[in-house]
Amino acid sequence: EAGVAQSPRYKIIEKRQSVAFWCNPISGHATLYWYQQILGQGPKLLIQFQNNGVVDDSQLPKDRFSAERLKGVDSTLKIQPAKLEDSAVYLCASRTSGVRETQYFGPGTRLLVL
Amino acid sequence: GEDVEQSLFLSVREGDSSVINCTYTDSSSTYLYWYKQEPGAGLQLLTYIFSNMDMKQDQRLTVLLNKKDKHLSLRIADTQTGDSAIYFCAENGSGNTGKLIFGQGTTLQVKP
Prior knowledge:
The complex is a heterodimer of chains A (114) and B (112). Chain A has 114 residues and is an all-beta fold. Chain A is 0% helix and 48% strand. Chain A has strands at 5-7, 10-13, 19-24, 31-37, 44-50, 53-56, 65-68, 75-79, 88-95, 104-105, 109-113. In chain A, strands 2, 4, 5, 6, 9, 10 and 11 form a seven-stranded mixed β-sheet that branches. In chain A, strands 1-3-8-7 form a four-stranded antiparallel β-sheet, with no helix packed on it. In chain A, a hairpin with a 2-residue loop joins strand 5 (44-50) and strand 6 (53-56). In chain B, the strands form two sheets. In chain B, strands 2, 4, 5, 9, 10 and 11 form a six-stranded mixed β-sheet that branches. In chain B, strands 1-3-8-7-6 form a five-stranded antiparallel β-sheet, with no helix packed on it. In chain B, a hairpin with a 5-residue loop joins strand 4 and strand 5. Chain B is globular. Chains A and B meet through strand 5, strand 9 and strand 10 of A and strand 4, strand 5 and strand 10 of B.
């Protein structure tokens, strides 16, 4: 079974530029999460999707971050415009429905904003 | 509120046991997890424990849960150099969304 795929793996941009990340979850996983992991910290949830609907986006900085999962499979996370403090690893995770099910994480996209 | 705390660093000799500790605040968490993160990699689920259990053993890993004190520990027996990584404790918090609240991670250094 293929794992969670993310691209690109690395991205370097200048502040005020835009950037987009892509995630392909494990086949059949209805729930998809985007986490932000700043260096030296644990991951923090940005947004959670159930199929193509948003379940929780309370921690998403909506003035600059947006995310979508139009067909309930792949998802994209966009930052526009980027700030220096957005430098982090962006992790995508997925799981099947049900609280008992565990999350599987992708390798992450490492973003550096200069 | 939801908060998870871990010590930042642990150094052990190869072959010794490692114990990584974690405290959490949300007593309504139903599951508690341990994840491992190697350099440049994503998070790998090591093990998890249901909140009505006080111990779970899985090969070299032993998880102890003290629900009264909201304290979770991960013991790694016969620690190997390949166990060097960052270990994250996480809880699933209140509600049934499945979102995870992570600690800041404990860096385990295993010396040969």
